[in-house]
Model the fold of this input.
Amino acid sequence: EFRRVLFRSLKFGQSGKAYSRFSIAVDRPFQSSADKNSQTADFINCVAFGKTAEFIGEYFRKGRKILLNGR
Done:
């Protein structure tokens, strides 16, 4: 489960193709010696292009869940 935490911008390159930069937070549980069930978050920077970038820019806001697939 990912949550979008920061929407930086929807921009268009010199060729006219849309791109969007944003960050997501991924909850990661772990066990520490002091707390049995601790949790932290990893923050991942992402870039989307074309229609995907436009869709993200129009419909997703901070805190909304998002499903990502990519490399």
